[in-house]
Structure formats: C-alpha cells, structure tokens
C-alpha cells in the first residue's frame, strides 16, 4: 500500500527526526535509566521461560500502543497547526482555490 506524503513525514519525524533531539533530553535519559534498573530487577527474578514470554508480549503490546499513540498525536498536532495557519491567513487552502 502506497503511503501518503503525510504518513511519510510522520514516519520520519517520529522514527528518525526526533531521535537526536530526544537523546539529549534529561527526562528521557532518566526514564531510560529507570528502564535499565527495572530490567536488571526483572532478570534477577529468574522467571521460567513461559512467564518471561508473557511479560515480553505484554510489554511489546504496550510499546506498540505507545508508538501508535505518539504517531497519532503528532499527526493531530500537524493538522491543528495547519488549521491555525489557515485561520490566521498565513497559508491558503489550495482546495478552495481550485473551486473558485
């Protein structure tokens, strides 16, 4: 399935464009350290493989949900920005120009 330009921009911004910025963010680093510490605690539990796989699937599902949420909020923010720029006259609506 062919992606729209909007989807291509979103994918780049969410997956690549943001990575260098977020790695410099103090709050992000704190969260990453917390994840590392919690991972060590989890490993120390020595759970059976079946239980580890269930936890892995659960965390993967949460990560997928969070990534999708982030993508959707980015796109909504982009739409809101375009609406604002249209409303204040900074940009014109090409669809309306074609009708006229």
List the main descriptive attributes of the protein structure presented here.
100 residues; mainly alpha; 5 helices
List the helices and strands and how they pair.
Elements: H1 5-17, H2 19-22, H3 26-44, H4 49-87, H5 94-99
Helix pairs in contact: 1-4
Give an overview of the whole structure.
This protein has 100 residues and is mostly helical. It folds into two domains: 1-46, no CATH class; 49-100. The protein has five helices and no strands. The longest helix is centred in the last third of the chain and has 39 residues, at 49-87. The chain starts with a helix and ends with a helix.
Major sheet size, sense and barrel closure: none
Query: How many DSSP-defined strands?
Result: 0
Report the average pLDDT across residues.
89
Write down the secondary-structure element order: HHHHH
How many domains? 2
Classify the beta-strand content into a percent band: under 5%
Alpha plus pi helix count: 5
Q: Helical content, roughly?
A: over 70%
Point out poorly predicted stretches.
Answer: none
Radius of gyration: 20 Å
- Which of globular, elongated, flat, extended, rod-shaped describes the shape? elongated
Report the end-to-end length measured between terminal Cα atoms: 33 Å
Summing up helix and strand content along with how strands pair, one would put the structural category as: mainly alpha
């Amino acid at each position: 399935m062919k992606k729209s330009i909007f989807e291509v921009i979103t994918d780049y911004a969410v997956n690549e464009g943001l990575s260098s910025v977020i790695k410099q963010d103090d709050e992000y680093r704190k969260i990453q350290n917390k994840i590392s510490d919690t991972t060590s605690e989890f490993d120390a539990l020595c759970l059976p493989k079946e239980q580890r796989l269930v936890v892995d699937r659960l965390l993967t599902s949460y990560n997928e949900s969070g990534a999708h949420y982030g993508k959707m909020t980015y796109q909504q923010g982009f739409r809101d920005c375009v609406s604002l720029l249209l409303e204040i006259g900074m940009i014109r609506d090409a669809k309306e120009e074609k009708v006229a």
